[in-house]
Specification:
By secondary structure, the protein is mostly beta strands. 7% of the residues lie in helices and 58% in strands. A hairpin with a 4-residue loop joins β8 and β9.
Length: 119
């Protein structure tokens, strides 16, 4: 069971109980985030593909951590001009853990849970 969501100008394939690094979102740690821009939702047997978005589908996640990426150094040198510019950039990221897939406010994981449980 997986879904494809759009966040931060990018598309990401997500599964339940896995961690993902996305563009920084302004949410406190351990808060729930709801992604309602779901492009595809595959429930095990069928794939629900939206023309733009899947209507009524959401992905619920928990914010695990906020971090920063590696520093990128940018140097622009103009030859024969004795001129150079140095700048740097560090991208900010948010780590999330996907907890639930919902359609019309109802979790679709509860339907699949009895099949995956072992006795």
């Amino acid at each position: 069971m997986y879904a494809v969501i759009a966040t931060g100008g990018k598309q990401r394939r997500v599964q339940v109980n896995r961690r993902y690094q996305i563009e920084r979102i302004g949410t406190a740690l351990d808060d729930h985030v709801v992604f309602d821009s779901v492009l595809l939702l595959h429930d095990g047997q069928t794939a629900h593909i939206g023309t733009s978005m899947v209507k009524g589908a959401t992905v619920v996640a928990t914010v695990v951590d906020h971090a920063r990426g590696p520093k990128i150094r940018i140097i622009k040198m103009r030859r024969r001009k004795h001129s150079m510019t140095r700048t740097g950039h560090r991208q900010q990221y948010t780590w999330i853990r996907v907890t639930d897939f919902q359609v019309e406010g109802q979790s679709i994981l509860k339907e699949a849970a009895p099949e995956t449980q072992s006795k």
